[in-house]
Amino acid sequence: MDHPTRLYVPATLANLGSGFDALGVALDLYLEVEAEPAPKDAFHYEGEGQVEGEDNLIHQGYRAGMEALGLRPEPLLIRAFNPIPLARGMGSSSAALVAGVALADQHSGGRLGREGVFQVAARLEGHPDNVAPAVYGGFVAALAEPPLAIPLPRPQGVYFVLAIPPYEVPTPLARAALPEQVPLKDAVFNLARSALWPAALYSGKLEALREACRDRLHQPHRAHLMPGVLEAIEGALEAGALAAFVGGAGPTVAALAREDRLEEVAKALEGYRGEGRTLILGIGEGYFWKET
User: Fold this and answer.
1) Contact in structure between 91 and 134 (CB atoms under 8 Å)
2) In angstroms, rounded to a whole number, what is the distance separating the alpha carbons of residues 206 and 281?
3) How far apart are CA 214 and CA 193, in angstroms?
C-alpha cells in the first residue's frame, strides 16, 4: 500500500422481487474505506448507525480473504465512512464484507482478483445477490454454491426511488418469517418472473419489469414486519414505476423509474416511508479504488 488509496463499495438491492437469493443490483451510494498497517487491529467508523470494535465485518472480510490466500492477516487500522443505512435492506453488511476481502486482494498484490473477491465474499455472506453487484456493479444474476455471477445489461435513463422507513428489519427475523415449503404454483409464478428480468434488460423491453418484479415467495410472508409494504409496491407501480419491490429483507421499498416519473413515484411512497427518508439513486459501479 505505497500511496494512500480509498476503496469504494456500493450499496445493493437483493431479490428484485421475484429473483429471491438470485438477482441483485448495485446503487450509486458507496461505503468508503481506507486501511494502513498498524501494530494491532483498529477501527474508526463514521456514518450510519454505530459500529465498533475489531470484529467488524470489514476486518472479518479482510481476514477471510487473507486466509483464502494462505497468508497471515497483518493487523490493520481501518477507517470507514458509511452512508448506507444499516439493517434497511440496502446491502450494508455485504458492502463491508466485500470491502474487507478487496483489502486482502490489494494487500496481496491482486492475487485474488475480482472473481476471487466475489467467491470469498459470497461464501462468507451466503447471499450472492448482494455480494455480486457489490463486486461487479449494475444488475447481476448470481449463485452462492457454486459461486457464480453474471452481470446483466444496465439500462440508461432509469433511477431507483428508495423509500426507507425509520425502523430496522434484521435479516434473521426476516428469514425466520419464511415458510419451509411453498406451493408449486407459487414457485412457478416466481421462476417465470425472475426469468423475465434478464430478458427485459437484454431486449430493452423495460415495461416487462412491471410483471418481472412480482413475487409470492418472500414479500407476502414478510409483510407483517413492514406495515403497508404490499400496498406501497402497488402504489409505486400505479404511479408509473417500471418495477417495485422490497430491497433485500426490507424494510426499504425500491422503485425503478424513468426520470419523468420520479416525482410521482416518490410521492406515492411517502406514506410508507413515514418519518424515514427518500433517496433517489442511479445504478452503481462494482467496487473501485481511487487515489486520495
Assistant:
1) yes
2) 18
3) 7
Which residues, 6 or more positions from 258, have their beta carbon under 8 angstroms from its beta carbon?
Answer: 157, 158, 159, 240, 242
- In degrees, to the nearest 5, what angle opens at C-alpha 60 toward C-alphas 57 and 63? 155
Tell me the pLDDT tens digit for each residue of 131-185: 999 999 999 999 988 889 999 999 999 999 999 999 998 878 888 999 999 999 9
Q: Specify the residue for cell string 424513468.
A: 258
Cell of 97: 464484507
The C-alpha cell at 252 is: 426499504
**Residue 90: partners with Cβ closer than 8 Å, 6 or more residues away:** 11, 12, 13, 27, 29, 84, 162, 164, 247, 248, 252
Contact call for residues 3 and 199 (beta carbons, < 8 A): no
Q: Residues 96-124: pLDDT tens digits? A: 999 999 999 999 999 999 999 999 999 99
CA 152 to chain centre: 15
What letter represents residue 185's amino acid?
K
pTM exceeds 0.90: yes
- Position 1 scores a pLDDT of 46
CA distance 172 to 177: 9
Secondary structure of 127-152 as H, E, C letters = CHHHHHHHHHECEEEEECCCCEEEEC
What is the Cα–Cα distance from 129 to 21, expressed in whole angstroms?
6
* Rounded-to-integer distance, Cα 121 and Cα 65, Å: 8
Is the per-residue pLDDT at 30 higher than 60? yes
CB 120 within 8 A of CB 68: yes
Residue 58 near residue 69, CB atoms below 8 Å? no
Half-sphere exposure of 203 (CA within 13 A, CB side): 11
Pairing of strands 23-37, 42-47: unpaired
Q: How far apart are the first and last CA of the chain?
A: 12
The one-character DSSP state at 50 is -
